[in-house]
Every structure is written in structure tokens, then in C-alpha cells.
Amino acid sequence: MVECIDRALASLGAGVREALYYHIRQSYDLPKVEFQKRYDEFVLDLEKTLGKTGFHVVERLTISEMRSSFGLEFSEQLTLPQAIRKAKGHFLS
């Protein structure tokens, strides 16, 4: 799932992606290697960094990446944390 987030952020530009990763690492002490273990924290930090509107764009891009990468159907109403939990449940069951 980290790869899906990575591709979603890269669609905004490599510089934007790297700047976001740097900011989250510096401001919230959350390096990229920890995203997989700390998804909920990462999502909250990303939303704090981008604001509601910016986060919504990244959320939709990430869920779209998850759909195409994993072949899962997600409701348009799902939030990113819900989609992550659903994908984890699918693969861990």
C-alpha cells in the first residue's frame, strides 16, 4: 500500500512527493519506512500537512491506485483509512 501512496503523491510531481515525505519526517518524526506500520498516524499527518482539500485529492488518487493495483472494488464514499483497512482485511483473511 505504501507503493500506492507513493504513486499517488508522485502524480503531483516528484518534488512535491519528496517535500511531503521530508515535512512529515521532520514535523511528525515519521519516516517513510514506518508508513506501513503506522498508517493511521501517516494519514492524519498527511491531512494536517495538506489541509482538507489537498488531502481529499491525495486520498482519491491513492484509492484509485489501490483499485488498479489490487483489483479491489471500493465504494466512492470510502475514506483512505477505511480503504486501507478493507485492503488489509482482504489480503490477511
Radius of gyration over all CA atoms, rounded: 13 Å
**What is the overall pLDDT average?**
92
**Secondary-structure arrangement, i.e. CATH architecture:** Orthogonal Bundle
Query: How does the major sheet shape up?
Result: none
**Which of globular, elongated, flat, extended, rod-shaped describes the shape?**
globular
How far do the termini sit from each other? 16 Å
Task: Give the domain tally.
Answer: 1
CATH class: Mainly Alpha
CATH fold description = Non-ribosomal Peptide Synthetase Peptidyl Carrier Protein, Chain A
**What's the number of helices?**
4
Counting DSSP E segments of at least 2 residues, the number of strands comes to 0
Which parts are unreliable, with pLDDT below 50 for 5 consecutive residues or more? none
- What is the H/E order? HHHH
The fraction of residues in strands falls at under 5%
Helix content: over 70%
SS content category? mainly alpha
